[in-house]
What does this fold into?
Amino acid sequence: MDVVLAELVERGHGLVNRSVVEQVVPAWILQRACTTGELVRVLPEVFAAAHLLDEEGRRAYTSPLGRIGPDLGRRAVGAWIRERGALSHLTALDVWGLRAQLPGDLLHVSAPAGSGLRSWPGVRVHRRRHFSLTSPSVLVRQGLPVTTVERALVDSWPMLSPAERRTPMIRAVNDRLTTPERLRAALDGTTRVPGRAGLSTLLTRLAEGCRSPLEIWGHERVFTGPGMPSFQRQVRVRLGRRTVHLDLYAEPERVNIELDGATTHGDPRQREIDLRRDAQLAALGILVVRFAHRRLVREPETVRRETLAILASRRPR
It folds into this structure.
């Protein structure tokens, strides 16, 4: 490969744009590197060093873009769109750290209707009217233009299977990347969202304080209805130098219901932490009652009866 071209590829960490190359070397040098197989065109005007392409994936992936992996693929798309669009949908979720894309997954871009961008093998362009490429609609993250986390979550909802839809939403709220209120505003500002009813229900549960699939399940099937108090969710309590959050707190009875997820079962270290926390809360007069994932899911009626009995025993006679 030409020395100058090789230096440009190295500076681009394996990628180079035609417009950059032709500022310093003749066009035929770039063409020769492609002919000899040293560079591969992965997008219009964007080329990648051939050694970065997955040779084993030659048959699995229909486009060269799919063979360079999601990280390099996103950078290639960023070099291609050049202020004409922003990474969006599932690709934006990856940039926000909420759901990783795999090699060969379709990369997504949102662009104004008149941007001139068109879908390409490995990239889907979503053209939108009145789409702004400036803040607050588009932000820069990891050096790439990306739609807001709220926009990415709402856009991705219908693309995900029902089994995995809720996880990125819950994680985004737990990681304080967004709030249920901001997500609701993004949904209200979107006219067509397949599965809107399910998303709306999830946002309601998040606004009520549910912070895990198990808490949502318990809220809908166990801890509501006749006899159940209006539990406060995610109540902040100061224990020494740290602050803890109570899953479900009945203030008049001073009872805290904790729902232990399946991943905590059998973890001795987590068990020790929980016991220490429960003892500190007991010193404040708060009774902690824990229900394991297995019991909550398999014996919901039994858990419900036990909860009602515990609450009744804590009320003044």
